[in-house]
Amino acid sequence: MSVNRALSIVRAVAKAEAPLTPTEIAERIGVPRASVYRLIKSLEEENVLRRSADRATLEVTSAFLRTMIAGASTNQIIAGFQETLSCTANTWGSASFLARLDGTSVEVVHTVAPCNTKAGFVHPGSGVRPAHACSASRAILAFLPKAKAAAIIGDDFEAFTDRTLVDRDAIDHELALTRERGYAICDEEIDPGISSIAAPVIVGRAGVVYSLGIVSFSKRIHEHGIPTIGEYLHAKAKAAVLNASQNLFEFAA
Length: 253
What we know:
Blueprint (H helix, E strand, L loop, with lengths): L2 H13 L6 H8 L3 H13 L3 E3 L6 E3 L1 H9 L3 H19 L2 E8 L2 E8 L14 E3 L5 H7 L4 H8 L14 H14 L2 E4 L6 E9 L5 E10 H7 L1 H26 L2
Antiparallel strand pairs: 1-2, 3-4, 3-8, 4-5, 6-7, 7-8
């Protein structure tokens, strides 16, 4: 298989707004259809591409997207999510953040401030977040196998404020609500007057990769409405996977 041509095919499919037919792929990359068909067959066998529901078009597999993201450096990941983070920060006038599961802890790896800072904003900082209380953590742990999530959460539930959940049943219930809603909430559980909302970044059936969220003054978040922000983040997180993957394909060019 020609590696350069194969990468061109994968890149074309990843960057397309909708799944492509083999003919459309051939036209976009300027390669004869016969060659494209042979390469597509090999890419399907390697679980890089798969047929869409209509069986006539192709899309990148969840497993390959996850491999691309998991194998990327932190700087590449940040670059891939930068546009989404900037859009989120400016939409809500609050700092947006990207968090990831790093072995046995969840850490914030990047934060973007809104362009307009006259009204003030809260910076979430970086590094490991409390597994039992932070929205960045809950958005990831809620979608992991229960045994794995429980091991990461542990049994030491520090009460940061009088609103911090420190009861195992209450924490498990909040994770169940996170799965049901599609986003996690931390309403003044870590700092009084500060709240955050985060949504899981999921690559199809491959599972959780990161979480995307905002942190702000509680008053501002409640004025906008938690469900409104949560649903926005849920939708943005879905789109962010493909945007990040497209960026990584450009790095591979």
